[in-house]
Amino acid sequence: MLLGVPKEIKNHEYRVGMTPASVREVRRQGHEVVVQKGAGREIGLGDGMYVKAGAGIADGPEEIFAAADMIVKVKEPRPDECRMLRPGQILFTYLHLAPDPEQTRLLVESGCTAIAYETVTDDRGGLPLLAPMSEVAGRMSIQAAAHCLEKAQRGSGVLLGGAPGVAPGKVVVIGGGVVGTHAARMAVGLGAEVAVFERSIARLRQLDELFQGRARVLYSTTDALEEHVLDADAVIGAVLIPGAAAPKLVTEAQIAKMRRGSVAVDVAIDQGGCFETSRATTHARPTYRVHGVVHYCVANMPGGVARTSTFALNNATLPFVLRLADKGWKRACGDDRHLLQGLNVHDGKIAYKAVADALGYDFHDPAGLL
What we know:
- It contains 13 helices and 15 strands.
- The radius of gyration is 21 Å and the shape is globular.
- It folds into two domains: about 1-120 and about 305-370, NAD(P)-binding Rossmann-like Domain (Rossmann fold); about 135-300, NAD(P)-binding Rossmann-like Domain (Rossmann fold, 3-Layer(aba) Sandwich), CATH 3.40.50.
- The longest helix is centred in the C-terminal third of the chain and has 30 residues, at about 305-335.
- The two termini are about 20 Å apart.
- An eight-stranded mixed sheet has the order 3-2-1-4-5-6-14-15, sandwiched between helices.
- The protein is about 35% helix and about 15% strand.
- The chain is an alpha/beta fold.
């Protein structure tokens, strides 16, 4: 199989779908790889490293999309990229389709087979290809919040860790999954006062054991969440319903009652965001203010630390890339029910129920498409 790795074109997106090490592993299995010129240059992965690993170098994306049997990316394809996809071609990347009707329509029209990193599952009910970026985003969310709280960024001027004789900042983390756990760990490490909200009783017990009193672990009700959000210096939105649009858990009315200069970081923005006032931003212009509250809603947050993110992502995706290349998508998905959960679009059909429900498409059981 010929695998194609185009250069990412989203604003300030420097991650790359395959590292030279991944290319070498794929070549060992007898497959070919073509990488777009300069795809990894910004994170220290030069074209020469790819050539040494056995890849070909293409000048532009058109050559890659025209030739490759499978496209391996990081971020969802932009409209121009969607229009280059064709029937029978595999697209393996993050998609986040539920809040993105245009991308969904274009993928349906392309006839390609689109497999989403974020809906591939594992035996423990986890999302192994989303987890690495969730870990990075969770850690970055506190870094972003701390920066946004600075007066120069129009924040309130609060230091999350406080100072001798001065109380620390208050951080509220909504969601106790991978993002929320790593956000809370970073906030606790900085010395902030941290509250984590979660609805799964089993997860609440795990978090309570993990933090050992260093963070308050609370059951999420509307009343409890509102009380803490209104008193917070930073609120981290870390909720996830796999493949579906994020629920709006913080209303505009609540945002309006928060202290002026407080910060809302919406890590769920890839799935539409969990604050009513959220709208996607970029690394070039990461923030805006609503009712005096600084909003940080960068949709590709891990792209800000692109080298770390690229290696973490490749560690997780490489085994699946190899299976798809070795077996083709039908056999690979037929042999692995967890990979089958990643199938979102095939031959003009929506194969992931949450996406179909969110956007009004007919749902087609992925097993029936094999």
